[in-house]
User: Fold this.
Amino acid sequence: MSAMRLDGKQIALEIRNEVARDVQQFVAAGNAPPKLAAILVGEDPASQVYVRNKERACQRAGIASQLDRMPATTTPAELLERIDSLNQDASVNGILVQLPLPETPVGEPALDERAVLDAVDPMKDVDAFSPINVGLLMQGRPRFLPCTPHGIIQMLHRSQIETAGKHVVVVGRSEIVGKPMAMMLAQKNGSCGPETANATVTLAHSRTQNLAEICRTADILIAAVGRPEMIRGNMIRPGAVVVDVGINRVDDRLVGDVAFAEAEQVASAITPVPGGVGPLTIAMLLHNTLLAAKLQAREGAVG
Ligand code: GUN
Assistant:
């Protein structure tokens, strides 16, 4: 068997077109175009590429964007001040601090990632990293959904893959993907309806015993560990759906967390790397930026 490939590029394009259409309607109703402000600290090459892609995607969707570049020597006070001024700026609807923050030169005060993310106004937190937005999600009344897990839900839904009643194994418990992914799948009602929620979820991680055995019980296996090709073909139940969130650079190649050539012989559907989950993250960021603008327009109208 050779698995069906879940084409993230195509699905992301569909979502981006929908967002662009909704942005047009929002602007036609007399609102300013939504605006995203990104902060990039330091010169990490991968982050530069991500940020450039985000800017380009905004432009194509009719969303305004601004990029604040700050040097790797930026102090915590300077970064917090920058975030605060964006929090106060009514023309900015969404704020994104690109991660990872740079390593600190010896002797400089460390940039505490948590403190930085906590400083973003929860109403502008389009990454959904703030404890307020994580808490709302946990309680089943989300405001912003984190972009990568939401992109995966959209991809499954738009590929007619239901999760209700299925056993989903999520490998990896990161704050950005694994944890919120597990939470979203376990909800009664998801952003795409109950069929793409209501899963029985196992959240596996680096200390999980019998990982291979547990993975083999998955109807849907989501790999988000950041370890190249760690999920082998013999860890996949024949006919399972495999979602690979990993983007690892090995020599000059990009590989996922799943050994693709082995996995596609066993799975019924699988996301490639690149061109799988990656493009959906940006699409959902655009979605969140428009949502932020809508929420703020409503707030302004009431207040
Ligand atoms: N770095 C890697 N993924 C992300 C993301 O989704 N948001 C931000 N801000 N930084 C990232």
